[in-house]
Amino acid sequence: MMAAGDDSGSPVRVLAGQAAITAWQQDVYRSLHAHPELGHQETRTAATVAEALRGFGFEVQEKIGTTGVVGILKNGDGPTVLMRADMDALPVAETTGLDYASTEHSTDSDGNEVPVMHACGHDVHVACLLGAARLLAATPGSWRGTYIALFQPAEELADGADVMLKDALAEKIPRPDVALAQHVLPFPAGHLGTREGAFLSSGDSMRVTVWGRGSHGSMPQLSVDPVVLASMIVVRLQSVVAREITPGEFAVLTVGRIAGGSKSNIISDHAVLELNIRTFSETTRAAIVAAIRRIVQGECEASGSPQPPDFELYDHYPVTSNDADATQAVAAAFRNYFGERAVTLDRQSASEDFSEIPDALGVPYTYWGIGGADPDAYARALEAGTVAVDIPANHSPNFAPVIEPTLETGTAAAVVAALAWLGE
Ligand code: ZN
Ligand code: ZN
Which of 115, 215, 290, 398 could bond to 223 as cystine, CB 3.0-4.6 Å? Predict the structure, then answer.
């Protein structure tokens, strides 16, 4: 690995052309934002990406997994750096009021007609990675090695990285020396931050079906009421993190959905609970899953449930744990280029499937955050103690990163980080 920070020459030379691509990049971003696509449906986005990469001189492969795109740019002997951007949007109705706001609708995987919005900023990630790809392609004399720009589908569905790997991604690209990724977060635009070790939590969803005995609502004595049973489980689950996990150890257990019955005068024969689990350690995750099973089974027995409960784990995201050496190299390069705009971030209780790619390829990775919030609005909210209310976070229908300096920062970050390996 080249020591970042020794030489700021490469980033300065590659980024000298940044101002000249700003208008193009902002157009790309507004177009992506206005035309968001759900996971595995990113055909328009993938076509935009592939066409742009070909124009820059990348060797391009499309439809990896479902809509995945990979561009490879070989520039002599040297290390290989992979940078990933996710492309998918969310089933959210946009309320930002922006003149480039989405009015799109689509059909989700359950067949429901839903509004679609880039409410997680993946349009920022795509625009920044395209910008970095264009700048690197235009300055081959300022770096050496191989740059891989990877555009992944369906991060929000937890299987976009997986489908690319299952479609033989490892055989389609040179083995990278490091993998990089970034995410726009609700802190001031213009700033960016790294973190060594665990950065993003693991995430798991679990569907629990508990069984009762149906009856007329007027004859409860003939029933085993699954609504009462499910309610007991919801209350009892609140004690798992509070009473079973070591104080100070991060853990979240949320019951995000409870469904049972169809009508006031009918006692149903089953109820469904959908749970979400977030941790920073596999041990804690296993302890929570075991506690859920024990409590659900115990409550079913207490209610006289006629049949054992069903458990289904789905939408698994691993812990994102940044490699120490790679993170130190990127953090040093960021400090060198961005000065005090580069900070250390706290752990985030969000989750990502990005790390499945470097883990499968057996390479180190680092994943950092870039700010997207209007710096003035953020400063006012901080002063007033109203950040949580006034600064819309990812997945909010009001999530609206300011275009600049968000794109400028995310693009420069992608270039600076890559040059920690590829620079002179
Ligand atoms: Zn998201
Ligand atoms: Zn996201």
Answer: 215
The alpha carbon of 61 and the centre of ligand 2 are apart by a number of angstroms equal to 23
The predicted-structure confidence for 235-255, as pLDDT tens digits, reads as follows 999 999 999 999 999 999 999
- Give distance in angstroms: CA of 156 to centre of ligand 1: 6
Ligand 1 is an ion; its neighbours by CB within 5 Å are: 120
User: What are the residue ranges in the chain where pLDDT is below 70?
Assistant: 1-8
Query: From ligand 2's centre to the CA of 177, what distance in Å?
Result: 24
| Sign, Cα dihedral of 46, 33, 26, 181 | negative
Helix residue spans in 318-402 (DSSP H): 324-338, 356-361, 375-384, 387-390
Q: Residue 279 Cα, ligand 2 centroid: separation in angstroms?
A: 18
Task: Report pLDDT for 6.
Answer: 44
What pTM does this model have?
0.90
pLDDT score, position 3: 43
Residues of the chain with CATH 3.40.630.10: 10-200+319-422
CATH for 10-200+319-422 is: 3.40.630.10
- In angstroms, the first-to-last Cα distance of the chain is 11
Number of residues assigned to the chain: 424
Pick the CATH number of 204-316 from 3.40.50.10260, 3.40.50.360, 3.40.50.80, 3.30.70.360: 3.30.70.360
Residues 69, 52: Cα–Cα separation, whole Å: 11
Check residue 73 and give its pLDDT. 98
What is the whole-number distance in angstroms between the Cα of residue 404 and the centre of ligand 1? 21
Task: Report the separation in Å between the CA atom of 66 and the middle of ligand 2, taken as the mean of its atom positions.
Answer: 18
